[in-house]
TrEMBL record:
Lineage, opening ranks: Bacteria, Bacillati, Bacillota, Bacilli, Lactobacillales
Domain ABC transporter: 4-229
Cross-referenced Pfam families: ABC_tran
Matches recorded under CDD domains: ABC_DR_subfamily_A
Gene3D superfamilies tied to this protein: P-loop containing nucleotide triphosphate hydrolases
Keywords noted in UniProt: ATP-binding, Nucleotide-binding
InterPro entries named among the record's database cross-references: AAA+_ATPase, ABC_transporter-like_ATP-bd, P-loop_NTPase
Molecular-function annotations in GO: ATP binding
Name recorded for this polypeptide: ABC transporter ATP-binding protein
Length: 290
Protein backbone atom coordinates (compact mmCIF):
# COMPACT_ATOMS: atom_id res chain seq x y z
CA UNK A 1 0.00 0.00 0.00
CA UNK A 2 1.28 3.47 -0.80
CA UNK A 3 1.22 6.63 1.24
CA UNK A 4 -1.37 9.28 0.63
CA UNK A 5 0.29 12.68 0.54
CA UNK A 6 -1.41 16.04 0.86
CA UNK A 7 0.93 18.58 -0.68
CA UNK A 8 0.70 22.34 -0.17
CA UNK A 9 -3.10 22.45 -0.28
CA UNK A 10 -4.55 25.95 -0.19
CA UNK A 11 -8.29 26.56 -0.41
CA UNK A 12 -9.95 29.95 -0.67
CA UNK A 13 -13.66 30.64 -0.67
CA UNK A 14 -13.84 34.18 -2.06
CA UNK A 15 -11.59 36.26 0.20
CA UNK A 16 -11.50 33.68 3.00
CA UNK A 17 -8.42 31.43 3.06
CA UNK A 18 -9.72 28.31 4.80
CA UNK A 19 -6.65 26.12 4.25
CA UNK A 20 -3.25 27.73 3.83
CA UNK A 21 -0.45 25.56 2.43
CA UNK A 22 -1.44 22.36 4.25
CA UNK A 23 0.90 19.38 3.89
CA UNK A 24 1.01 16.01 5.64
CA UNK A 25 1.21 12.33 4.83
CA UNK A 26 -1.13 9.49 5.68
CA UNK A 27 0.66 6.16 6.04
CA UNK A 28 -0.93 2.79 5.28
CA UNK A 29 -2.72 0.92 8.08
CA UNK A 30 -2.81 3.63 10.74
CA UNK A 31 -5.65 5.29 12.64
CA UNK A 32 -5.49 9.09 12.46
CA UNK A 33 -7.41 11.84 14.16
CA UNK A 34 -8.07 15.01 12.18
CA UNK A 35 -8.92 17.65 14.76
CA UNK A 36 -9.79 21.32 14.62
CA UNK A 37 -12.28 23.85 15.96
CA UNK A 38 -15.67 24.36 14.27
CA UNK A 39 -15.33 25.81 10.81
CA UNK A 40 -11.56 25.35 10.59
CA UNK A 41 -11.76 23.44 7.31
CA UNK A 42 -11.70 19.72 8.16
CA UNK A 43 -14.63 18.79 5.91
CA UNK A 44 -13.24 20.98 3.17
CA UNK A 45 -9.92 19.16 3.39
CA UNK A 46 -11.55 15.69 3.36
CA UNK A 47 -13.62 16.73 0.33
CA UNK A 48 -10.49 17.94 -1.44
CA UNK A 49 -8.66 14.65 -0.71
CA UNK A 50 -11.53 12.71 -2.30
CA UNK A 51 -11.82 15.04 -5.29
CA UNK A 52 -15.31 16.27 -4.37
CA UNK A 53 -14.10 19.84 -4.38
CA UNK A 54 -11.02 21.36 -5.92
CA UNK A 55 -8.22 23.09 -4.07
CA UNK A 56 -7.13 26.57 -5.06
CA UNK A 57 -3.65 25.08 -5.29
CA UNK A 58 -1.76 21.98 -4.20
CA UNK A 59 -2.02 18.27 -4.94
CA UNK A 60 -3.12 15.00 -3.38
CA UNK A 61 -1.11 11.93 -4.36
CA UNK A 62 -1.27 8.22 -3.69
CA UNK A 63 2.33 7.09 -4.11
CA UNK A 64 3.39 9.11 -7.12
CA UNK A 65 -0.06 9.23 -8.77
CA UNK A 66 -2.08 12.42 -8.67
CA UNK A 67 -5.59 11.83 -7.26
CA UNK A 68 -7.16 14.57 -9.36
CA UNK A 69 -9.67 12.90 -11.70
CA UNK A 70 -7.85 9.60 -11.33
CA UNK A 71 -10.41 6.79 -10.87
CA UNK A 72 -7.72 4.26 -9.96
CA UNK A 73 -6.60 6.36 -7.03
CA UNK A 74 -10.06 7.54 -6.02
CA UNK A 75 -11.37 3.95 -5.88
CA UNK A 76 -8.93 3.36 -3.02
CA UNK A 77 -10.12 6.29 -0.90
CA UNK A 78 -13.59 6.40 0.67
CA UNK A 79 -15.21 9.37 2.38
CA UNK A 80 -18.04 8.98 4.87
CA UNK A 81 -19.53 12.44 5.21
CA UNK A 82 -22.48 14.24 6.72
CA UNK A 83 -23.80 15.09 3.28
CA UNK A 84 -26.39 12.70 1.91
CA UNK A 85 -25.40 11.81 -1.62
CA UNK A 86 -28.18 9.30 -2.15
CA UNK A 87 -31.69 9.78 -3.55
CA UNK A 88 -34.44 9.79 -0.88
CA UNK A 89 -35.83 6.32 -1.56
CA UNK A 90 -32.44 4.58 -1.30
CA UNK A 91 -32.42 1.53 0.99
CA UNK A 92 -29.39 0.64 3.09
CA UNK A 93 -28.87 -2.44 0.92
CA UNK A 94 -28.93 -0.32 -2.25
CA UNK A 95 -26.27 1.90 -0.69
CA UNK A 96 -24.13 -1.20 -0.06
CA UNK A 97 -24.69 -2.37 -3.66
CA UNK A 98 -23.57 1.00 -5.03
CA UNK A 99 -20.39 0.81 -2.92
CA UNK A 100 -19.84 -2.72 -4.18
CA UNK A 101 -20.17 -1.55 -7.78
CA UNK A 102 -17.77 1.35 -7.24
CA UNK A 103 -15.18 -0.25 -4.96
CA UNK A 104 -15.78 -4.05 -5.35
CA UNK A 105 -15.57 -6.72 -2.60
CA UNK A 106 -18.09 -5.12 -0.24
CA UNK A 107 -18.24 -7.15 2.97
CA UNK A 108 -22.02 -7.85 3.09
CA UNK A 109 -21.70 -10.43 5.84
CA UNK A 110 -20.05 -8.19 8.42
CA UNK A 111 -22.26 -5.28 7.37
CA UNK A 112 -25.39 -7.39 8.04
CA UNK A 113 -24.10 -8.41 11.47
CA UNK A 114 -23.24 -4.81 12.38
CA UNK A 115 -26.61 -3.47 11.23
CA UNK A 116 -28.30 -6.03 13.47
CA UNK A 117 -26.11 -5.07 16.45
CA UNK A 118 -27.17 -1.46 15.97
CA UNK A 119 -30.85 -2.43 15.54
CA UNK A 120 -31.18 -1.65 11.82
CA UNK A 121 -32.35 -3.65 8.84
CA UNK A 122 -30.85 -3.42 5.36
CA UNK A 123 -34.29 -2.99 3.77
CA UNK A 124 -34.89 0.30 5.60
CA UNK A 125 -34.81 3.48 3.55
CA UNK A 126 -32.39 6.26 4.50
CA UNK A 127 -35.14 8.87 4.45
CA UNK A 128 -37.03 7.01 7.21
CA UNK A 129 -34.05 6.91 9.56
CA UNK A 130 -33.26 9.28 12.42
CA UNK A 131 -30.03 11.33 12.31
CA UNK A 132 -28.23 8.79 14.51
CA UNK A 133 -29.56 5.85 12.46
CA UNK A 134 -28.40 7.48 9.21
CA UNK A 135 -24.97 7.81 10.79
CA UNK A 136 -25.04 4.09 11.67
CA UNK A 137 -25.97 3.13 8.10
CA UNK A 138 -23.15 5.31 6.77
CA UNK A 139 -20.42 4.01 9.03
CA UNK A 140 -21.46 0.39 8.52
CA UNK A 141 -21.00 1.16 4.84
CA UNK A 142 -17.62 2.80 5.49
CA UNK A 143 -16.35 -0.08 7.64
CA UNK A 144 -17.13 -2.63 4.95
CA UNK A 145 -16.16 -0.90 1.74
CA UNK A 146 -13.00 -2.18 0.07
CA UNK A 147 -10.75 0.89 0.21
CA UNK A 148 -7.27 1.47 1.64
CA UNK A 149 -8.03 4.91 3.05
CA UNK A 150 -11.31 5.42 4.90
CA UNK A 151 -12.00 9.04 5.82
CA UNK A 152 -14.78 9.58 8.35
CA UNK A 153 -16.22 13.05 8.83
CA UNK A 154 -18.11 13.16 12.16
CA UNK A 155 -18.59 9.36 12.27
CA UNK A 156 -20.60 9.43 15.52
CA UNK A 157 -22.87 12.38 14.72
CA UNK A 158 -26.15 11.97 16.62
CA UNK A 159 -25.22 8.65 18.24
CA UNK A 160 -26.06 7.91 21.86
CA UNK A 161 -23.25 6.93 24.26
CA UNK A 162 -23.91 3.18 24.02
CA UNK A 163 -23.88 3.28 20.22
CA UNK A 164 -20.72 5.40 20.17
CA UNK A 165 -19.04 2.82 22.35
CA UNK A 166 -20.18 0.02 20.05
CA UNK A 167 -18.94 1.95 17.02
CA UNK A 168 -15.43 2.32 18.53
CA UNK A 169 -15.37 -1.43 19.21
CA UNK A 170 -16.51 -2.25 15.67
CA UNK A 171 -13.94 0.11 14.19
CA UNK A 172 -11.15 -1.62 16.10
CA UNK A 173 -12.44 -5.09 15.14
CA UNK A 174 -12.58 -4.04 11.51
CA UNK A 175 -9.08 -2.56 11.67
CA UNK A 176 -7.69 -5.70 13.33
CA UNK A 177 -9.36 -7.98 10.78
CA UNK A 178 -8.00 -5.90 7.91
CA UNK A 179 -5.53 -3.14 8.78
CA UNK A 180 -6.05 -0.05 6.62
CA UNK A 181 -5.96 3.66 7.22
CA UNK A 182 -8.78 5.42 9.01
CA UNK A 183 -9.00 9.18 9.44
CA UNK A 184 -11.51 10.22 12.10
CA UNK A 185 -12.59 13.83 12.10
CA UNK A 186 -14.48 14.34 15.32
CA UNK A 187 -14.94 16.72 18.23
CA UNK A 188 -15.21 13.86 20.75
CA UNK A 189 -11.49 13.85 21.45
CA UNK A 190 -11.68 12.25 24.88
CA UNK A 191 -13.55 9.28 23.46
CA UNK A 192 -11.28 8.63 20.49
CA UNK A 193 -7.94 9.29 22.17
CA UNK A 194 -7.41 5.57 22.89
CA UNK A 195 -8.05 4.65 19.24
CA UNK A 196 -5.74 7.16 17.60
CA UNK A 197 -2.15 6.46 16.71
CA UNK A 198 -1.46 9.77 15.08
CA UNK A 199 -3.08 13.16 15.22
CA UNK A 200 -3.25 16.11 12.86
CA UNK A 201 -4.56 19.35 14.32
CA UNK A 202 -5.51 22.27 12.12
CA UNK A 203 -5.79 25.77 13.51
CA UNK A 204 -6.17 29.08 11.69
CA UNK A 205 -5.76 27.43 8.28
CA UNK A 206 -2.46 25.71 9.18
CA UNK A 207 -1.35 22.30 10.47
CA UNK A 208 -0.22 22.97 14.04
CA UNK A 209 0.32 19.34 15.11
CA UNK A 210 1.27 16.30 13.03
CA UNK A 211 2.55 13.73 15.47
CA UNK A 212 2.14 10.29 16.99
CA UNK A 213 -0.25 10.54 19.93
CA UNK A 214 2.18 8.80 22.26
CA UNK A 215 5.05 11.17 21.36
CA UNK A 216 2.79 14.14 21.76
CA UNK A 217 1.43 13.12 25.15
CA UNK A 218 4.93 12.39 26.44
CA UNK A 219 5.62 16.11 25.96
CA UNK A 220 2.33 17.21 27.55
CA UNK A 221 3.48 18.07 31.09
CA UNK A 222 1.82 20.02 33.85
CA UNK A 223 4.02 21.92 36.27
CA UNK A 224 2.32 23.16 39.48
CA UNK A 225 3.52 25.08 42.48
CA UNK A 226 4.27 28.65 43.61
CA UNK A 227 4.10 30.91 40.56
CA UNK A 228 7.69 32.19 40.74
CA UNK A 229 9.12 28.68 41.10
CA UNK A 230 6.97 27.33 38.25
CA UNK A 231 8.03 30.19 35.97
CA UNK A 232 11.69 29.63 36.82
CA UNK A 233 11.40 25.91 36.13
CA UNK A 234 9.55 26.37 32.82
CA UNK A 235 11.70 29.24 31.49
CA UNK A 236 12.64 28.65 27.84
CA UNK A 237 10.12 25.80 27.40
CA UNK A 238 7.00 25.89 25.22
CA UNK A 239 4.17 26.98 27.51
CA UNK A 240 0.63 26.59 26.12
CA UNK A 241 -1.22 28.13 29.03
CA UNK A 242 -0.95 28.86 32.78
CA UNK A 243 -3.79 28.84 35.27
CA UNK A 244 -3.58 30.47 38.70
CA UNK A 245 -5.55 29.33 41.73
CA UNK A 246 -4.62 31.61 44.63
CA UNK A 247 -0.83 31.69 44.49
CA UNK A 248 -0.53 28.21 43.00
CA UNK A 249 0.19 28.24 39.29
CA UNK A 250 -0.30 25.29 36.94
CA UNK A 251 1.51 25.60 33.66
CA UNK A 252 0.76 23.33 30.71
CA UNK A 253 3.85 22.59 28.65
CA UNK A 254 4.28 20.98 25.26
CA UNK A 255 7.98 20.24 25.36
CA UNK A 256 10.62 17.76 26.49
CA UNK A 257 11.95 18.23 29.99
CA UNK A 258 15.73 18.16 30.04
CA UNK A 259 17.58 16.55 32.94
CA UNK A 260 19.49 19.74 33.71
CA UNK A 261 16.40 21.43 35.11
CA UNK A 262 16.31 21.09 38.88
CA UNK A 263 12.79 20.49 40.16
CA UNK A 264 12.21 22.39 43.43
CA UNK A 265 10.50 20.41 46.24
CA UNK A 266 7.51 22.74 46.05
CA UNK A 267 6.87 22.05 42.35
CA UNK A 268 5.03 18.98 41.03
CA UNK A 269 5.06 17.46 37.56
CA UNK A 270 2.14 15.68 35.91
CA UNK A 271 0.59 14.98 32.51
CA UNK A 272 -2.53 16.10 30.69
CA UNK A 273 -4.61 14.53 27.93
CA UNK A 274 -5.23 15.09 24.23
CA UNK A 275 -8.48 16.99 24.74
CA UNK A 276 -6.79 19.57 26.97
CA UNK A 277 -3.84 19.79 24.63
CA UNK A 278 -6.26 20.52 21.81
CA UNK A 279 -8.09 23.19 23.81
CA UNK A 280 -4.90 24.96 24.93
CA UNK A 281 -3.29 24.78 21.50
CA UNK A 282 -6.27 26.14 19.63
CA UNK A 283 -7.17 28.84 22.17
CA UNK A 284 -3.84 30.66 22.15
CA UNK A 285 -1.68 30.62 25.32
CA UNK A 286 -2.38 33.05 28.15
CA UNK A 287 -2.24 33.24 31.93
CA UNK A 288 -5.70 32.67 33.38
CA UNK A 289 -6.88 33.31 36.90
CA UNK A 290 -9.15 30.46 37.90
N1 LIG B 1 -18.94 26.12 -0.49
C1 LIG B 1 -18.51 27.02 0.38
N2 LIG B 1 -18.54 28.34 0.09
C2 LIG B 1 -18.08 29.27 0.96
N3 LIG B 1 -17.56 28.97 2.16
C3 LIG B 1 -17.50 27.70 2.50
C4 LIG B 1 -17.97 26.63 1.66
N4 LIG B 1 -17.74 25.45 2.28
C5 LIG B 1 -17.19 25.75 3.47
N5 LIG B 1 -17.03 27.08 3.61
C6 LIG B 1 -16.42 27.77 4.77
O1 LIG B 1 -15.16 27.18 5.01
C7 LIG B 1 -14.91 27.08 6.39
C8 LIG B 1 -14.56 25.66 6.76
O2 LIG B 1 -15.71 24.84 6.70
P1 LIG B 1 -15.65 23.29 6.99
O3 LIG B 1 -17.04 22.76 6.85
O4 LIG B 1 -14.61 22.67 6.14
O5 LIG B 1 -15.18 23.28 8.53
P2 LIG B 1 -15.10 22.08 9.56
O6 LIG B 1 -13.75 22.15 10.19
O7 LIG B 1 -15.48 20.79 8.93
O8 LIG B 1 -16.20 22.54 10.63
P3 LIG B 1 -17.12 21.73 11.69
O9 LIG B 1 -16.19 21.10 12.68
O10 LIG B 1 -17.92 22.83 12.31
O11 LIG B 1 -17.94 20.73 10.92
C9 LIG B 1 -16.15 27.65 7.10
O12 LIG B 1 -15.88 28.98 7.44
C10 LIG B 1 -17.21 27.55 6.06
O13 LIG B 1 -18.16 28.56 6.23
Amino acid sequence: MEQLSINHITKRFGRQTVLDDISFTLAPAKIYGLLGRNGVGKSTLLNIITNRIFPTSGTVKLGDQDANDNDDVLSRIFLMSETNLYPKRTSILRMFDLANEAYGQFNYQTAARQLKEFGLDEKQHLSNLSTGQQTIAKFVLALNVDADYILMDEPVLGLDAAHRDLFYQELLKSYQAKPRTFVLSTHLIEEVQQLLEHVIIIDQAKVVVDDDVQNLLERAHTVSGPADQVDKYTAGLRVLVSEDLGNIRTTYLLDDLDDQRVLPDTVELGHYDLQHLFIYLTNGGEVKNA
